[in-house]
Amino acid sequence: MGNTITLEKKSHVLLIGLNRPDQNNLFNQEMIFDLAAALGELERDQDLRCGVMFAHGKHFTLGLDLADVGPSIAKGELYQYPETSIDPWQIKEPFRTKPLISAVHGLCLTLGIELALASDIRLAARETRFSQLEVKRGIYPFGGATSRFVHEAGWGTAMRYMLTGDEFSSEEAYRMGMIQEVVEKDELLPRALELAEKVSQQAPLGTQATIKMARLALLENEKAANQKIWQTVLNLLQTEDAKEGAVSFLERRQAVFKGR
């Protein structure tokens, strides 16, 4: 992994930092593949239970470094990740199974919005500004916004911004359901870490099953998910963590889960 992404482990949480601040965190090919590798590490490390994605510098990201990435897009090579990596935009399988929290600030443009939408919980600093402006550049949002933005905000609201490229605020993003919390800039990373630590205290197999079943309902349909509900919960009931959850409830103490 190169220098475009920083990694730091804090207990069961992996902090993943976008690290091209001198380029406003524009995504070149190296950064795309480094982020995919970081998410692969989150997936493989059995001690990690949640990730937090944030950015170094003034802005979360201004989008793609088209001068660097453009030729790869034209050849259809952008999503050809190694087997050990995970697609950050969750378009190409295998999908991430562990929870990921995004913390955005400054400008969050184009694929930055889509990157956040591909995570599970999204926080923004109060002064954050967003724009899905691909139509102003002769292309369209191809990192998941045409499905996820529509799902979160509704057809009319999503199209209002995707078809105009207009900028919107963190408050508007919160109103649309794109962002779950708006906080002051100096509270952004601490709050994201606080939520990640809380997620990490829960049963890892339970959080992963929650993501898996919710994704199944979205990608296929509710009926397909419902057909697997009982088998999924029955499998979980056989785990050590489910037994620990029941015992800790009876003993009125915090459960200590092991992911088994």
Automatic annotation (TrEMBL):
It comes from the Bacteria. CDD domains: crotonase-like. InterPro entries: ClpP/crotonase-like_dom_sf (IPR029045), Enoyl-CoA_hydra/iso (IPR001753), Enoyl-CoA_hydra_C (IPR014748). It holds the Pfam family ECH_1. Belongs to the enoyl-CoA hydratase/isomerase family. This is Crotonase/enoyl-CoA hydratase family protein.
